[in-house]
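Workshop exercise sheet. Pairs work together: one partner reads the sequence aloud, the other fills in the structure field after running the prediction. Swap roles for the next sheet.
Pair: D.N. / O.F.
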Amino acid sequence: MVLLSITPLLDGVLRLDIIAPFHTSGPPLLQFHLAIEQWGINSAGNDGSEGESGWYAFPVNFNSACFALFCGLRNTDTNKPTNYDSEVQPRNWTTTKFNVYKQNYGGNPWFGSFIWFAIGR
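Structure field:
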């Protein structure tokens, strides 16, 4: 039998663990710490400027690595509600922080806020 444990650490952070015993009775003998998942919403500058953003801190530092970072533009502000010809792309990340590239596809872009999801250990 293999057990999966999901532990909430902070707002928007989960830790996943697998406990796999080598035998059918007694205490578990092997535990794998799989991943920490984090997600959030950050400001993308509230402007139409293309370029690399500043750094954003993860709510909880990853212990050894951030394996993947996914981002999506979330234009819900009322300043430019119909301007969507743009996106944010993960640019650089470490175990403690990340930044994005604000990409303009022509037209009339607006960078309000963006959502992100990161997986690491």
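Discussion prompt: The two ends are 24 Å apart (CA to CA). What would you look at next?
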